[in-house]
Design a protein that fits this description.
Largest sheet of chain A: 8 strands, mixed
Oligomer: heterodimer
Shape of chain A: globular
CATH topology of chain A: Glutaconate Coenzyme A-transferase
CATH class of chain A: Alpha Beta
Distance between the termini of chain A: 47 Å
Largest sheet of chain B: 8 strands, mixed
Order of helices and strands of chain A: HEHEHEHEHEHHEEEEHEHEHHHH
Strand content of chain A: 15-25%
Order of helices and strands of chain B: HEHEEEHEEEEEHEHEEEHEH
Structural class of chain B: alpha/beta
Number of domains of chain A: 1
CATH architecture of chain B: 3-Layer(aba) Sandwich
Number of strands of chain A: 11
Shape of chain B: globular
Structural class of chain A: alpha/beta
CATH superfamily of chain A: Glutaconate Coenzyme A-transferase
CATH architecture of chain A: 3-Layer(aba) Sandwich
Radius of gyration of chain B: 17 Å
């Protein structure tokens, strides 16, 4: 029955992966960037299971971040950017949550967040950078002092120090390392040996995975060992970092997955329209998340016509000529 | 006379500022058009890259976000954020970053975070993304703005990205080794920064716009004494922009996206 004995203990359905590894109050990092490779199927399952009080740590996550916030799963957020490009220059539910005061949030920059994950991956407590000197990122702490005492929250946002190796004045900012409880990535391929292969840009996915206690990979395809070992230069993460492997074709929809499918402009526009209004947004969640019994049912609802329209041309990696207006 | 949109004029004016051989960090929207026009007309040796890690993509179609799969296609190299920012700040490269913002001040500092109290803002935007990083690390930034009084402000509600900071040598004194704001390209013209004081001044106004309009729409005093009228878009520039860079007219005819990265 089991085609992949090497990863039998890691392969599981999506609902089981979320039930086993995601918990109320966990610190969570999600892979992808704005409209690309967001682990959407996993985000929908987190919402369906009613996980609460998530401490989300992000660089520029777009769609998954917005729906997790909109569905009330997120209590605390560290973030560099929230937007989905032309579809929502600022993510709608994020914007509402911040303006209405329903979210604990703290701003960093993309490079800073990537460095914080790198520090976590390297096992060092902090990492210096020049980026941010003089900015209000440094001037304003987002979290109140009582939050600073909580687990997985640094006791200050930044520290400004002089370069100890120079006799001249040379200041840098120290950034606290991040070690999320869980990181979820959506990848193109996982080999039968558990090796993960991400095609296209990797964003900060690899640092996010190596920094985390637990890693869940959702993927388009499980591929034979012979395929994944054919060109190891293409591979992204070895098996021993990975705790759960879930095959979810189109698991990043409505965001893109390079070489498999493009983003879905129609759906992102629909989302934007419905997210603007609280009642319509509840309807969106009912229709596209709570009321969906299985991933197959979700794809049926998206429809063959749309799935064909967004299918990527394998030569370019995206859907050429896709109507994106 | 050829008709053209504000976005087309802005993209072409900004494109003219790119030097051959520059390594250009592009955002989306007009910034992407500007970078692509520059490469196809003035600066064939320029290399366009994105904060997400894509270097020199073919850009046969306009990306809608810096995470778009179109920035990964036909590249010389696909990598990630850490590699991209090590390029932005690399000491041996001359890197130019195109950034947009909700607010700019007279020293070219930018706000893309929020209006009002940071903790409970009247209006929240996307946040820094890579803008703070590019502004800190690149050899220079070129800023895109709609020219409105509420956007050209005496004091930013939030300083997300450092331009010339408080003017003079203050940027270097912060510990930032290079960089600073080179120009602001708006729907009315091109503004630059005084060599010593680092204060913004009007360098060129666009055909159809006036010095008076610039003064009225700038929320701080701006020196306009040396301003000249800019060259309108040339037929060759518009042809490249319309036929090669944005044939689907995704950006040329739409409103500017004031968001960064």
């Amino acid at each position: 029955m089991n085609r992949c004995p090497e990863i039998a203990d890691k392969m599981m359905p999506l609902d089981e992966a979320v039930r086993r590894f995601i918990f109320n109050g966990c610190q969570l990092a999600i892979g992808g960037f704005t409209v690309n490779r967001n682990p959407m199927a996993a985000a929908y399952e987190i919402i369906r299971q009613g996980i609460k009080d998530i401490h989300l740590v992000c660089h520029s996550n777009g769609q998954a971040l917005d729906i997790l916030i909109g569905a009330g799963c997120v209590k605390r957020l560290e973030i560099a950017y929230s937007g989905t490009g032309r579809f929502a220059p600022t993510c709608i539910r994020f914007k509402k949550a911040v303006e209405q005061g329903g979210l604990e949030f703290e701003d960093y920059s993309n490079y800073q967040m990537a460095l914080r994950f790198l520090a976590g991956a390297l096992g060092i407590p902090f990492i210096p950078t020049k980026s941010g000197l003089g900015s209000d990122l440094v001037k304003y702490e987002g979290f109140p002092s009582e939050v600073r005492k909580e687990e997985k929250v640094a006791n200050m946002k930044y520290a400004l120090v002089g370069n100890p190796f120079s006799s001249e004045k040379d200041e840098v900012l120290l950034l606290p390392a991040l070690t999320p409880d869980v990181t979820i990535l959506h990848a193109q391929y996982v080999g039968e040996d558990g090796t993960v292969q991400i095609n296209g840009l990797t964003f900060a996915d690899l640092e996010q995975a190596k920094a985390a206690d637990t890693v869940i990979i959702t993927c388009e395809e499980i591929v034979p060992r012979s395929f994944i070992r054919l060109d190891p230069d293409k591979n992204s993460l070895p098996s021993f970092f990975i705790d759960a492997i879930v095959k979810v074709p189109y698991g990043a929809h409505p965001t893109a997955c390079f070489k498999f499918y493009d983003y879905d402009p129609g759906h992102l526009k629909l989302y934007r329209k419905m997210a603007e209004d609280d009642n319509l947004f509840r309807e969106y969640l009912d229709e596209w998340v709570y009321g969906i019994p299985s991933h197959e049912a979700y794809l049926s609802k998206v429809g063959t016509e749309t799935l064909l329209k967004i299918k990527a041309n394998p030569a370019t990696g995206y859907a050429q000529g896709l109507d994106r207006k | 006379m050829i008709r053209y949109s504000d976005n087309e004029m802005m993209a072409i004016a900004a494109g003219r500022l790119v030097n051959d051989g520059d390594i250009v960090f592009a955002g989306t929207g007009v910034a992407m058009l500007a970078a692509t026009v520059a490469k196809r007309i003035y600066a064939p040796q320029a290399v366009i890259f994105f904060e997400t890690g894509g270097i020199d993509p073919s850009l046969e179609e306009i990306p809608m976000a810096v995470g778009d799969s179109r920035v990964m296609s036909g590249t010389s190299l696909n990598s990630g954020l850490i590699e991209a920012f090590s390029t932005v700040g690399h000491r041996k490269l001359h890197t130019i970053a195109f950034l947009g913002a909700a607010q700019v001040d007279r020293y070219g500092n930018l706000n893309t975070t929020s209006i009002g109290d940071y903790h409970k803002p009247g209006k929240r935007f996307s946040g820094s993304g890579g803008a703070c990083d590019a502004a800190a690390l690149a050899s220079g930034i070129i800023i895109f703005m709609q020219h409105e009084k509420r956007r050209f402000v005496e004091k930013l509600d939030y300083l997300t990205s450092v331009g010339w900071y408080e003017g003079g040598n203050s940027r270097q004194e912060l510990g930032l080794r290079r960089g600073g704001a080179l120009a602001v390209v708006t729907n009315l013209g091109v503004l630059r920064f005084h060599k010593e004081t680092k204060e913004m001044y009007l360098s060129e106004f666009f055909p159809g716009a006036s010095v008076k309009q610039v003064v009225e729409n700038t929320g701080f005093p701006v020196d306009v004494s040396g301003a000249k009228e800019a060259l309108p878009p040339l037929p060759e520039e518009l042809k490249v922009l319309r036929e090669e860079v944005d044939p689907q007219r995704l950006i040329c005819q739409s409103d500017m996206n004031a968001s960064p990265g």
